[in-house]
């Protein structure tokens, strides 16, 4: 009979609880900690992760090609000597070493020595899905960091939490469920996306089971409020939410409160499938606290990859300090933009804070010298009450080679002159003229796919060359 370690044999629960504390233990461990003490902790964990990475062909190849030798990395201060990697490097690994690539370190182990792993993929909406492998320890740290954020936010006792994150092969909904069911006393409703559970059914679940916390991507969360009203269910009366935990990005928080009620507490957090939860908003509502005991977060200039001046916008480049079993992740460029929030941490934690997701540097449209991020368009349009919240941008190029941006906007009615009003708003806020085309409610859904995607489409690039 085969003998192998199961999932829970692969880590020490008490040790993880001490190393990645939750609730009151978070403050007991870190409140008032000096910058030097935090850096020493990061240094210890960083060197362990780097040692593991040197055992994996993916990093051996990339680091050696860059001229890096093991002795070059003596502390976390040497992190900039290591080349930055991105999803394109990982997908190249998958192409060269199918089907899993050679970046995780799992495939290289003899089968008798392999631990249990959690396997997911990315959604594959922009190409072939990327495999995601998580070792047991890595997975549990990620789960704890999600729960840490929720508990810091003030998740109510015995909450009824409904999740709109996708299930299936994607990671999001699964590790929300694991985090909530293992590290809180909440009831968890894994509704998933609008494809997995139709929107009207999601509304009925919320109403029937007294859901008071809703988690997911804010675009769909706002859509659910509309579906509720369309079906005679009144948000704030028939469904009373205490808390919405979502990815707000540049969205207007007032628009979410208008949809679900002024008494709802709103909290933002940030993470991607490869990294897990990186940062979360706290009760101070003063930026998102970066879990720096678990990550090194660099903010780098999208053009030069040099560190930006504190307070300036840069790409989030993440090094996970806990991924020393399966799939080490070192200097991973998310291409997600944010900026550091300056000033004293009101919670007394030693961690830096960031503003949150501000767009993608690889999803930018440059028009006549102006950088335009499609994710920023929606909040700009909310100045006009006719805007219903849904929009999509088309980047086009005419026969002369001139680029333009056409913004399709859902509005309550196509009144005369409304397109000119919205166009004027965008010109004032963007500093450049773009075209606006009006659509009625629901007409853009086939393009944005807000009902079926975790992250709706905001840009269609029709330019050639």
UniProtKB/TrEMBL annotation:
Keyword field contains Membrane: no
GO molecular function, one term: ligase activity
Signal peptide region: none
Taxonomic superkingdom: Bacteria
Domain AMP-dependent ligase C-terminal: 369-463
Pfam families: AMP-binding_C_2
Keyword terms, alphabetized: Ligase
Gene3D superfamilies attached to this UniProt entry: 3.30.300.30, N-terminal domain of ligase-like
Protein name in the entry: Phenylacetate-coenzyme A ligase
Organism: Paraferrimonas sedimenticola
